[in-house]
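discrete fold record:
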Amino acid sequence: MRIKGAIFDADGTLLDSMPIWLDVSSRWLLAQGIRPEPQLGDKLFSMTMAEGVAYLRKVYGLSQDEKKIVEEINAVVEKFYLTEVALKPGVLELLDWLRGQKIPMAVATATDEPLIAGALAHVGIDSFFGKIFTCGGVGVGKDHPLIYQKAAESIGTKPEETLVFEDALHGLLTAKRAGFYTVGIYDEVSSRQQESLEMHADLYGKDFNEILKKLQKL
């Protein structure tokens, strides 16, 4: 295969950021002096922000209005992305190798651009990417291939010559159906999907060091 471009998901792929989405409500409650219930993040993970806040207000008898709670929770998430988030193991080595091969790269993420841009700058890899594409920016989620198509267009590559790195099964399947060469990467938060991710990905690895070795043999 002749690789000419690469598109990366951010959360759980480049960034070890998924735990914050499980932990943020507990962090916020603790800041209010309230002890959160065990496994609160698991209960809220599949809810929308509005549903999650409604749950918190009901269960914990909160007096703050919904808008204020949302603002404060978002501030916790923003602080994490801008000051705490870390790279997944092996990311820098892989990006250096792709740059050495003169392969242009872009980011395709469901998270808002200011958070991802800040996170990439915080971990020191923002210079590797030409542009960040978000689901909000393109107007559809990753159940539709538009975000990957826009990212490939920005780096001037066709799907069949473009790698798409994903830790989540639904995004990887969307990219694969659209003709991209898919690379699955393990993430603990989506560990229950890993068997299916490995089965459907064109290339799979437990970490980026493993993936790099496999890419070098293509």
